[in-house]
Amino acid sequence: MRLLHWLAPVLSIVLISHAYSTVHAQGYPPAGLQSGMIQPVSYNPAGFPGFSQNTQALPAPVQPGFFQAAAGNYGYPTPPGIPTNAGPEAPLNAFPQMTPFEKMFQQHRVDKNGLWTYRGSNAGKKYFLSMEALFARYQNPGGALIGNVGTESYLHMVEDELVDATDQDTYDQYNENTGLPYFDQQHFNRIPKLNAPGVRLRWGWTNDDDSGFEVTGWWITQANSSWSAIENSTHKPNPANQGIMDILLSPPNYLDPAGTGVVSSIPGVTTAEVNTVLQNELMNLGGLPLDDGTLNGVTVPYDLDFRVKSISQAWGTNATWMSTPIVDKKSLKVRGLAGARYMQVREGFSFVGRDSGLLYSDATNIAGIRPDLKLFSKPTGTDENQDGIVDNAGVVEDDSTGGGTTGTSTAFFAAPVDPVTGQAVQPYTTWVNSSVQTHLAGPEVGFQFDLGGDKFKIWGQTKVGIMANQEQIKLNGDNVGMGIRADPDDVDRPKALIDPTPGNPNPNAFSSTQNHSHVSPLFEQSIFMEMAIFDKVPVLKRMKMLEEAKFKVGYTYIVAGEIARPYDSIRWQGMPTRGLFPSIEVDRQSWSVGTWSVGIDWLY
């Protein structure tokens, strides 16, 4: 301890040196004797020889174990009193003995101006309990590409075929106008925000010295967010056509496998009607870029469905010890924190793409099947040729001449045929599921600040930790490859998918699992505001359970590093005929969740 002023100790020494008082360890007994007390023998020194009657009586010697009464204003003390061990019935005074009830917490310290300060408390532990509703937002997948990075686009892949079927001007309009997609590659930022509700419980206590302990547990429900290319397409399917489409897309294939573009007979439906239905129902949706072992790869077009879905869920618990205040001002306290945490994060995504297996082009210009080409009108959202179909499949709408009918109303649809098996390509569905389950556990440290008083307070916690990370990654799917390619002898356009057989109905399916352990850093920042407002609200102020309660709002942000995310941990390969399937390729990124909270905090 350091005393900052020399005058205080000097004056204290002077006062002590001049002070004198008589201290008794026990007060005096009452004048009257009680039952069981022993009366001592009287003592009169005047009766001894050598003493005269006028001689003043000398004080009696005090026998061991006896009280001695205090002297009066004049003369010697009175004769000895009763013995202290006279019996259990002898009365005793509490003062100046210490009371068992005065076990108060005390703090004594010298503040900055050199004076002693004192703080005492006899309250003991103060317990708290809070219940909060959470409104969370998980970190989105980000702008990662859905598919293989570096693969050429579908537009560039079919550049020659598109120019041959139309003209260079049509290709240039697609290539230069990025607002008009042509089976474009998609990114995960298409997926809407991942929002979900949750709940948090917090319980603990603070001691008289403002140290304490708390246990917190929180749980956020699973967020499901999906995006479909159909919703954003200018070309919408017509529900009235679904009956015919169900027949066309179900085996056996009703499109002539000879490649003449002639549709076989469907009872009650003409060839022209089928042609019109296909123009309306096949859509320019999206492309999945893949590494198929070739130099530039392939982007697989999907004309029936293209959608992705993302899910996220997290929960956790932590125990935290709070130190005595490092900074202790009138309205500001800062305390150190140390504890342990466990947290679990589950993420997953799925991709679904459906393709008709058809190649199509304008019937006036077609000279047979053009490999890989699915010809579409520019997706402008208008019906340029006024045929009742917006952005036709297999027909190039063009009103540049002013007549509005420069395209043809007839398209050429054909299913490519495998020259080895003689089987036409059937409609197929590509699907991929990827999931990661992450367990985080480890120590954390930080600090907590409290600003304000009992009626209104702003407080928050900052924590950092090093977590042991145990993760499990799963990947499975089927039919990942360029399904509309059917020539195994063509080096540039090899067949990708294996034909199913009765013995192996899913030859293109794949599945894999990996488990990893490593270390992940973690950071958490929270800030809360507590207000004693229930005593101001009618009806609520009469509820006994809210007498010691406070209204609480806040925000908490948790971010963990080195987390394997399902969107980034895939190697997008697709050529089952050559043994290339999607596989797990771990790519760790950061993961985070932010939560707004509203709740009630009780003190008891």
Automatic annotation (TrEMBL):
Q: What is this protein called?
A: Uncharacterized protein
Organism (species): Gimesia panareensis
